[in-house]
Amino acid sequence: MMPRTSSRQEDIDIARAIAQFIVVLNHIPQYFQRYHLDHLDSTMCRWILTGVNYLHMPTFMLVAGYVLAGGRDDAGSLEGYWRFERKKLCRLILPFLSISLMTLAIKMVLPGDSARGAGASLLGMVTAPRSGVAPHLWFLWCLMSIFLVWPLIRRVIPEHLLPWVWGGLIVLAVWPIPWPTDVHGSPVLGLADLIWYLPMFMLGYLCRKRWHRLLAFGAKAALVAGAVALAAMLVVVKADTAGLPRGDLTVSAIRFTGHVAGGLCVLSVAGLIASRTVRPRAVLAGVGRRSYDIYLLHVALVGHPLVLVISRLHPGPVETYVYFAVALVATMVVPIGIGELIRRVPLLACGMLGVPMRRASASQAL
Fold it and tell me: What are 187's strand-pairing partners?
């Protein structure tokens, strides 16, 4: 990461774009499998779904901590804390609830889908976000949980002790503690996710505040971090194949190391792209600036309905891979256009995209 004179860091936007593409790459194969588009190689899908977990959410958590560290810290007082939390509630939880309800409505009308268990799914939005109506939005609940806890940590812990606290949180994250889960195995209240991702968020914060050089090694850092993430993934896959429990301390520590390395790899690649005059640079930065719109809208409004339509075409082996590529591109691009339309109505922009009403109204006036 290199310092920028503008209010936005281009490398951060590029990292968001890369991570968001990986999120889409995670979700689209799941719907291809759901609608029995069996020509898409199951082994390839399994490796995609395994590998992307080492890249996308760790990247977003590192970025969230990094960005927060560069902002104004006004959550020290009680008034400042509540003001900070209100902003985050509007930014994260309001879209979480509205998009979840919209997803439920779409599931009720899509052929081949079912709204059975809707009550349990609605309850699951809060009790176990990974099992709710829109399980792909669990990240918002997890990040909100971190934003609830983090200002309290900052108020209690002196800055020079934060690295030690970070180390302690890593031990807590990888230690085989039986956190409560629901009947689907999803963490209740997202507690296990909070414990797992808080150290990654904190690492992003510390990289901005103290460990600047950790994100400044460019190509070498990307290669080393990528190699570590790949090695960790292979070890964990082999452990899962061998039947070792996922809570095994060694396996958990390796998985955590791989997640952190994967996030650092994406950030290093983003910094490398931002430091060079290459054609995709501006495109990626633009996509990154709308990555939140893509994240919120890509499943309910594009990915799920589009794959359903593709399944009705009964594509052959070659056509399946062509449609897969089309679905990936469409699921990245179309939500940007939908997001721009939503932003024209301030109330919708606030409720669905978490845009502050004042900012949405100002944009509309322009």
Answer: 181
Look at residue 254 and tell me if it is in a domain: no
DSSP letter string over 311-343?
HHT---HHHHHHHHHHHHHHHHHHHHHHHHHHT
Structural domain boundaries enclosing 78: 60-215
Place of tokens 């996030």: 263
pTM, to two decimals: 0.85
Count: domains in the chain: 1
Residue 205 domain-assigned (yes or no): yes
**d(C-alpha 66, C-alpha 151), whole Å:** 15
Q: What is the DSSP string of 214-263?
A: GG--HHHHHHHHHHHHHHHHHHHHHHHHTT--TT-HHHHHHHHHHHHHHH
Phi, psi of 242 (to 5 degrees): -75, -5
What residues have CB less than 8 Å from 263, skipping those under 6 apart?
A: 55, 58, 59, 61, 62, 200
- In a domain? residue 279: no
**Within 13 A of 96's CA, how many CA atoms are on the CB side?**
23
Q: Which amino acid is it at 365?
A: A
Q: Quick check: 236 and 35 in contact, CB under 8 A?
A: no
Does residue 50 belong to any structural domain of this protein?
Answer: no
Q: Do the beta carbons of residue 215 and residue 264 sit within 8 Å?
A: yes
pLDDT in tens, 236-264: 766 665 555 556 777 788 888 888 888 88
